[in-house]
Amino acid sequence: FGPWVTDRAPDCFAEGSRQRQCRRCGQTETETLPASPENCPSLAFTDLRTSAWYHTGVDYVLSSGLMNGVSATRFSPDRPMTRGQLVTVLYRMEGSPAAAGGSPFSDVTLDQYYARAVLWAAETGLVNGVGGGRFAPESNITREQIGVIFCRYAQWKGQDCSGAASLAGFADGGKVSGYARQAMAWAVYSGLMVGMEDNTLRPQGTATRAQVATMLMRYFTQ
To answer: Taking a C-beta distance cutoff of 8 angstroms, is the pair 186, 148 a contact?
Structure first.
């Protein structure tokens, strides 16, 4: 047999595999590699704790390439996510497709890192802006805005978003904006979004990068 070649490296939670081939007969032998914390992608960042609640979600987005660190050594899990950043994540998930035409928003120019992602999201109907011809890419995204964008993304992918959970069980369920109520009901129903420890949804509250990472894992692995 020749040398082992790793097909999939194991991480903290998932097994990997490797194979080798006989040089004479061509027979392939496959071996499972056990899960190992030594290959945890979070270890590359000094501000991530493998014992934290967000560990599985952050590992998922790092290993899948959906999210990167804010620097070579920092992920900033508690930093709020911006509107431009979330759209960029979904854009990457789709393979960064080409977007035609110019920017429909006065505050998004083509020299910004999120420009192509915002153009794509506008073309596909995932985003409509915040009014006045603006997208507000640097504004922190709210939890109900996340619910709306994910619901539109799911519909664009041909998925059913008609399922709805009651929001009445949350202390602030009645505070969800009218435009976001159906999307938030679907987000809770699908398990994408859960309440906070004080049984609130905090629809107008911001979401951290770690929280969004966890939502992305829930959506793409459910």
So the answer is: no
Contact call for residues 73 and 44 (beta carbons, < 8 A)? yes
Report CA Rg, the chain: 20
Our CA angle for 153, 157, 159, nearest 5°, is 95
Q: Is the pLDDT of residue 76 over 90?
A: yes
Query: What tokens does 127 get?
Result: 């985003």
- Do 159 and 127 touch, CB atoms closer than 8 A? no
- Cα torsion angle, 205, 207, 208, 210, sign: positive
> In terms of C-beta density within 10 A (0-12 exposed, 13-18 middle, 19 or more buried), how is residue 53 classed?
exposed
The CA–CA distances, whole Å, from 137 to 94, 127, 177 equal 19, 11, 20
What does the pLDDT read at residue 35?
A: 80
Amino acid at 91: Y
The model's pTM is: 0.83
Of the candidates 144, 142, 154, the one whose C-alpha atom is nearest the C-alpha of residue 190 is 154
Amino acid at 131: G
